[in-house]
Prior knowledge:
Elements: H1 14-28, E1 53-56, H2 59-67, E2 71-76, E3 80-82, E4 86-88, E5 93-98, E6 107-111, E7 118-122, E8 126-130, E9 140-141, E10 149-153, E11 164-168, E12 189-191, E13 195-199, E14 203-205, E15 208-209, E16 228-230, E17 233-236, E18 240-242, E19 245-246, E20 267-269, E21 272-275, E22 279-281, E23 284-285, E24 300-301, E25 305-307, E26 309-313, E27 317-319, E28 322-323, E29 332-333, E30 337-339, H3 346-349, E31 350-354, E32 358-360, E33 363-364, E34 371-373, E35 378-381, E36 384-387, E37 390-391, E38 398-400, E39 405-409, E40 411-414, E41 417-418, E42 425-427, E43 432-435, E44 441-444, E45 447-448, E46 465-466, E47 469-470, E48 488-490, E49 501-504, E50 515-518, E51 521-522, E52 538-539, E53 549-550, E54 554-556, E55 566-571, H4 574-583, E56 586-589, E57 592-593, E58 600-602, E59 605-609, E60 612-620, E61 623-627, E62 632-637, E63 678-679, H5 689-692, E64 698-703, E65 716-722, E66 725-733, E67 744-749, E68 758-762, E69 765-766, E70 776-779, E71 783-791, E72 803-808, E73 844-850, E74 853-861, E75 876-880, ...
Parallel strand pairs: 1-2, 2-5, 3-6, 4-7, 5-8, 6-9, 7-10, 8-11, 10-12, 11-13, 12-16, 13-17, 14-18, 15-19, 16-20, 17-21, 18-22, 19-23, 20-25, 21-26, 22-27, 23-28, 24-29, 25-30, 26-31, 27-32, 28-33, 30-34, 31-35, 32-36, 33-37, 34-38, 35-39, 36-56, 37-57, 38-58, 39-59, 40-44, 40-56, 41-45, ...
Antiparallel strand pairs: 46-47, 48-55, 49-54, 50-53, 50-55, 51-52, 60-61, 60-65, 62-64, 62-66, 63-64, 66-67, 67-68, 68-69, 71-73, 72-74, 74-75, 77-80, 78-79, 78-81, 81-82, 82-83
Helix pairs in contact: 1-6
Amino acid sequence: MKHGSSIQNNGGGYRFVASLLAVVALIVASLIPPSVHVAKADDDASAASVTPTVSVSDYTGLANAINGSQSAVIAITGKIAFTGQITLNQGKKITLVSDASACSTACELTYASGNDFSLFNVIGDSSLTFGGGTEDTNKLSFSNHSNGRLVQVGSASDKASDKGTVTINGGTYNKNGRDSNTTGDGNIAYVFKNGNLTINGGDFKNNYASAASGSTTIGVTRSGGAVVRSSGSVTINGGTFYQNYTGQNYTGQNGEDNVTFHGGGAIWSEGTLIVNGGLFSANKSYAANVNSEYKIKRPAGGGAIWAAGRLVVNGGTFQDNWQMGNKDLYGTGGGAIYFGDGTQNEDYNGTMIINGGTFDSNRSMQDGGAIFVTWNCTAVFQQGTFVNNWSNRLGGAVYTEEDSTSYVTNAVAYENYAGHFGGGLWLCPSGKGVTSKHGGMALFANEANVKYDRTETGAEIRQDTIDNKDYGYSGSQDRGVTGAGDDFSIMYPSKSGQTNYFQLSVEWFTGDTITWHDDGQPTSKANGYLYTADALSVNAMSRPDGGVGYTSDTTLDPGGSNDFGYGLKVTASVRAQQNAINQAFITFTKNTARLSGGAFGSNGVVTFTKVYDVNWNKVSSADTGKKLAGSEWLLVARNDDGIDGEVKSGPAHLDFGLVGKCDITDSGSITPKKGEWCQVPNDASVTDGYYSEFKGKYVTVVEDNGLLDQNNNPGEFKVKDLREGKYWLKEYQAPNGYMQSGKTYTFDIVDNEQSTISISVDDGKTTGTVLSDNVSITNTPYGGVSWSKVDSTDGMTVLSGSEWKLQDANGNDIQGAGNITDCTDKCSASQDNPYQDVDSAKDSFKLTYLPLGTYRLVETKAPKGYNLPDGTQVYYTFTIDKDDDDRMNAKLCKADGVTEVTENKVPNDRTKGSVIWYKTDSTKEGKGDDARLKGSEWSLTQTKDWKGSNIATDKRTAIAVTDCFNDTGCSAASKDQAKEAGKFQLKNLDWGTYELVETKAPAGFHKSETTYTFVIDKDYTGPAEIQIKNGTDSVTGNIITNTPITVNSLPFTGTGSQTPRMFLPYVLGTVGAGLAVGLGLHVARRRMARQG
């Protein structure tokens, strides 16, 4: 039945009445001809809706929910015991969240019985997310499993089509793999090359990766990583990684069973690993080389992370992590991070970039208290803090091995300590130190002294093992007597053909001038990395001022005629020291090495590079003192080997070939990532004009207070680690409420000169205008307005289908703003095309990018069933004011400009409804003058309101309707607005359901006993369609017939006053008999129906 226009038949006894009428028709057919109704099919079909969130409490329910949905958010309401692996394939997008009311502590994901499969396998471009990012939804748990794994990401096929993506927003993932886990490494996630894992939060504590030999479920060599083992891409944005372990057991190490076990207490990665945040604390690696395996440079270490390929640390805290193995003297270390595999080449090992993070109180029982970089690797140290780290041999904070290349930018090292050589910086017999122009590490107030040849707690090492830790080589503090080089030391190249050197600079990156002077002298037998008397020996030289002073740049070149090494100390003013501390990008302090290199030790090549920063502000053009938060910028550097005489620019790590091509969209645009550099393809594939001027150049996105912005004040930017050269800036995203600048800005970094930012391109034209204050880039403010269309009666019901236009304050139409319609999918606007609804919610409007000024909002089309406001003065006004902090949500006012529209809900009046019906003779066709009957009377009652709710009986009002047949007009009392006899028209009817009953028939006709009904609503305001109450048949043409009262004349003889009235008893008797027969048939049929 169509909603709104139907009158239905009370069908409780419809077939019964039909039977009676059939009998009556047989008996008195000539007296009462039947009236005819035409049935109308019900064409109203309602589609079932699917709820996107599903709650499950068992494994079957979870499996069914995932297998039955392409995209779903599934609430876990209890312990899920897995009997088999669930695979997500073919692009499924599933999110699992905990139900806080059902899981007060945690919703467990576990096994029905002991097993070694991964609970989930995510492939086929599918994604799986654990947790919703809030405390209540982040209570999922996978804990206390000696075997098994939470999730397997991607597949061994390495096909792009089999890639998988997993995100962990929170939860608890603790105490897994405590025994020899036959599933293999990565108790929480195993990531294949085509897998992508992001961890935003969660607790990952006390997990264990065994170094035992034997096959695993996935069939890979055990390498490490108690939480994550990855060959793909992993991003850590948050989470706590605490007391995760690698090794055969807690007191021993990997041995002959698995000599290739690398380490990585929490994470093992040979793909891409990016750490933006999180806490790595008290993780331990027990990996160690045995049986002279060090000779082939096998890696062993990394209390928190072992990585190769690409490792970028942008943030996070590494604290109290341990590398415990101490079985040999080579290839072992990294209290927090071990990078690279000495058995592999440069292509496999790749590059590590330290862009930030804090490394505090990490320990190595060998080399690199915080970080160890092995052979055939490249490392870049650009930003970060290293404090209180300790190593049992070399590099209290950092150690880099032979055949490695490291870059250190604008570093300061002060108050670091070594037991023998180089309290700040130490270079091995094969180590080389290269200093760029005024670069280097600002070294001062460090100390090399045998009193620091001690444990991490400061205890003397008089026996090899103390508190179950194997320090080894007791008594080494008695050798070397004094040590050498409080701030710097370089050893004599003792091997045949071996060379080393260090370029000494007397000017720091701050511009301050300092003085170097000799501070002890290592002998030609001293190497600084062994514990023997010769290896730690020094020549007689009083400290600190018994040798040569250096007041100009010098290259120290041990070997040849220089039959000794060098130990040096810096003299710098207090002001110079403070400048170094304040301006440094990397800080090393309070770190200690038992033997050499209190802050930094190297057996490879270390280049100390001076880099620079650039600063700019984002301000409002309406108030240049107002800093604007939230903008993003495209920073562009050239790194093309000086084409056209230009020098290379950008961070140092752009030289290492790790920067890939930027991803290109189908529209010819590119999608650079925040904080990551990529190269714009230099070909025709880039057609987007925004990027086309930067073909072949390197770009990244700088987000306000994001990864690259080192100024914490909103609207103020500082980007560090930029080399000399030419750069470009272009606004990538404007602050909310401001027009995006289309200008391209440029600046040059030149040593010891303040960078000048100027406008390079403005509206396609080359300019050279320098910013007025050299730092402030302006944006023009804009505003927005939102509104909805509501029913004026209740002020709440939101209406669909309205259309609008904008005018200026004087009522002039604004070009392009003449047809504003409701957008519900892929809604967008731009500065060039602002007059588009950007609110995808149905029945809601939002305009943005509106310039400052006053506007008129005019409705041009009303919602269906509603009236368009009448008159030119019916419009709404709003103003976008530069001083209004909430100008993105302008207030609507009525035409007077004063009266506010409540919640910007614009009302419309409903269109009143009407109904027309005809009263006709049943013996005649149609509704013409000869068929219509005059004089009937009716009662009209509203039984339901406009929402379809019943009106209480005692609240209903019956309206009397009489037939008006006056050519000059109808009185209000009659209610009938039709002038023709037998035609009725009622107007101005409110929305709702009505019942119509005939109360008086036309003269000479039987009164209809049928109740009729009709509905007035937004879809049916024009003459309503009448139906019989509770029936499905409409009244054709709204023609309601009446049967004439007639009596057949029977033959008789005699005279007198006999009339047709005399035969009425006979007729009634006959009708009664027919009714009785019909009633009997009806009862019999019902009895038979019950019996049959």
